[in-house]
Amino acid sequence: MTVALAKAPVEAPSGTGPRRRRGPRIGLALAAVWLLVVALAVFVPHLLAPGDPLAGVPALKLQPPSAHHWWGTDEVGRDLYTRVVHGAGLTMSTAVLAVAMGVLLGSALGLLAGLAGGIVDVVVMRVVDVLFAVPGILLSLALITVLGAGTAAVAFAVSVGSIAGIARVLRSEVLKVRTSPYVEAAQVSGNRPLRLTLRHVLPNAVTPLLALAALELAAAILSVSALGFLGYGAQPPAPEWGAMVASGRDSLRTAWWLTTVPGLAIVATVLAANRVSLLGGRRLR
Amino acid sequence: MTRYVLGRLGQALLVVWAAYTITFAVLYVLPGDPVSLMAGTNLGFLTTAQLDELRHEYGFDRPLVVQYLIRLGAAVVGDWGHSIVSSRPVVDVVGEALVSTVQLTAVGLAVAIVGGTTVALATVWTKRRWPAQLLALLPPLGVAVPAFWFGLLLIQWFAFGIPLFPAFGAQGPASLVLPAVSLAIPTGATIAQLLTRSLDATLAEPYIQTIRARGAGTGRVLLRHALRNAALPTVTMTGLIVGGLLSGAVVVETVFSRPGLGRVVAQAVEQQDVAVVQGVVVLASIVFVLAGLAVDLLYPVLDPRIRAAGRRPVRSALGGAA
């Protein structure tokens, strides 16, 4: 009940711009369909591409796109379509893991700052400021220096970049509702702080948090694939979108599809996640 | 005013100090010391006694707090430690690489500003016609494009396809074109998004109506009256924009095999050269802070309303970043 009531005023005035309201939301529909396809590729890749992403036929190397190999083959004769489909799992799971960790850590910090107030608030938010002050990739690289390459390391390194934004949004949401009459009423009725937070404060923050998480997912996909491109993510035979772009670089002159296609997958997924994040209102960060 | 400037300066120093401290914590505290980290890779041939000697030489055998204080003290006076791999001073290593990166980011920033502003103005100008819809698609697309991928596409098209520019390296100004453009795409798109939004808001203000009523055409309204006000929120994002460019430069330099901070940091990460990594990260935070500081101090010059009020600019009122 509270959630439904609180949601309406958040979405109504912001949402999409006043001028763009009219007309069918083709963009949103396309985004939803694409994300569905990506989800299929993540969970049941064999349904979309029954082949083996690691098995190549050397005789068929560097074939341009054709009816047989929709997106061509790579330098050892592996089908690019199969590899891109199976690569979705690696790229997306790393990005989702990163956002999940970022949301967890960021919400904890934001809640702490918003609820505790005073000196705790100041200290936590200063730390968050610093996370903002160091450009994302560099912070990730510093962590990778210590953690070494690999999917888990990349996920953690990327998650640190999203903590700051999430902590800020959650803190401001908490401050917004903390002094509202219904929260005060709940407090006076004898709710303990933990229950108050989980039952009455947190549900209000869910919509902006989800919107921001979608936005952070888009950013995380870009960071994960950039780190994959630099060679710090999943290691070579494994198909990861960023790493695939990097390995296509060697045959850039002869086989354009090897770099172009995995990159297009990244662009489409980031676009879709960004579009979906708009649903939660534009007033973020 | 002096009070405000000093306060801002203190805040800036605090952020840089905190960035130094956090990177120290990450790089030096977490997994033991850098020498044992490297013992697994580059220094595998050394004996335990030699490793201990190396540790002593770099001070890794002292308590962490002592190490931290000594290093911080030295960093303040410009000694950022030595590269563990080449044993050259970090300041030299980073300083040499900086020239090329600064060239790239400066040109990238210029391209991003010009491109982003042009797209934003064109979008607002052509409202309600079909090109407007097409133009409105560009910024979200630009934000979604990975710079490393776009760089490779540019190489394919304008170095291999039509041989206009060199594909790799850093010889002469022509070699700067493709990297700068691919670096500018995400940043330019962000600028276009911010600017379009604030142009829309500015055009809805009463003073614009007054100017229109007095007979000014769309072009004059946009360029002479709306742009200046609408640009302010974007200007406050300069710190984030420059930070984003630095991040992007690391990747773009790798794509185009250019020398610079990107190559230095990539090498340092691979060789676990913590001092160099820390140097680059702290440098980036200094650049971020300086950009923010410059904007805040220049703000009264740009916005007469603040000059008149004599107070600090209100950042929170300026909407979102994305």
Automatic annotation (TrEMBL), chain A:
UniProt keywords, alphabetically: Cell membrane, Membrane, Transmembrane, Transmembrane helix, Transport
One of the protein's GO biological processes: transmembrane transport
Annotated compartments: Cell membrane
Major subcellular location class: membrane
InterPro entries with a match to the protein in the record: BP-dependent_transpt_permease, MetI-like, MetI-like_sf
Family matches, as CDD domains: TM_PBP2
GO-annotated cellular components: plasma membrane
Membrane-topology annotation of the record: Multi-pass membrane protein
Region Disordered, annotated ranges: 1-21
Superkingdom field: Bacteria
Domain ABC transmembrane type-1: 88-277
Pfam families hit by this protein: BPD_transp_1 (PF00528)
Membrane-spanning intervals of the chain: 26-48, 95-120, 127-146, 152-170, 209-234, 254-273
Similarity remark: Belongs to the binding-protein-dependent transport system permease family.
Name by which UniProt lists this protein: Peptide/nickel transport system permease protein
Source organism per UniProt: Pseudonocardia oroxyli
From TrEMBL, chain B:
Topology within the bilayer: Multi-pass membrane protein
SUPFAM superfamilies: MetI-like
Keyword Hydrolase (UniProt): no
Location of this chain's protein in the cell: Cell membrane
Pfam family, one: BPD_transp_1_N
Predominant cellular place of this UniProt entry's protein: membrane
Protein name: Peptide/nickel transport system permease protein
Species per Swiss-Prot/TrEMBL record: Pseudonocardia oroxyli
